[in-house]
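Example record

One chain of 189 residues, shown exactly as stored in the release files.
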Amino acid sequence: MTPTRTRVLGALLLVLPILASGAGGRPSVDCYPVSGAYEYGAVGGMVAWTSRAFLLGGAQYRYQRTYYRHPRMTTASCSPDIPPCTSDTSVTSAMINRAFAHGDVQRAFDSKTPIFYGSDPRPVDGTVFEVKRTSDGSSFLIGGPCSRLPVVEQQCIDIPPGLTALRELLLKLDQQQLGHPQCQAAIKN
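Predicted structure tokens for this chain:
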């Protein structure tokens, strides 16, 4: 091979991966790992068990269930990674990042005190959904729609669409991850 052809081939080998990956050699936004760390799950109610999920940054996910009806309280957990963007999954890291970056979610985290959105069913053994950012402890709670309240109940903040979408996505992520063999072996219903 001539020196000119060697240089051309070398240049192509350097440029092709950049062209294949998108603008400037950066990976597609769908491939970015989950940014930030969060904890979420249902709180309240007289329950036989509680569950919490943890997004620990990158592809790290942990699901933890504590059982209360055993002679001794027991906890089971599993930690399957969030699948890479190239896999055929219903929830990707990009979807998670977009949901947490939504303006409604950012405003909820920016409040100096935790805000309760929606109606609170806990006085009658209900549960609400809590989302906590672990870097600073900021959190918010999501209950039921305000329309479920009696007329005399005045204090109800409507649930913004971004928070509803985040809750639905996180629950879908849990369902996806609980389908992993590691979780199926560890977490019993």
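Notes: The radius of gyration is 22 Å.
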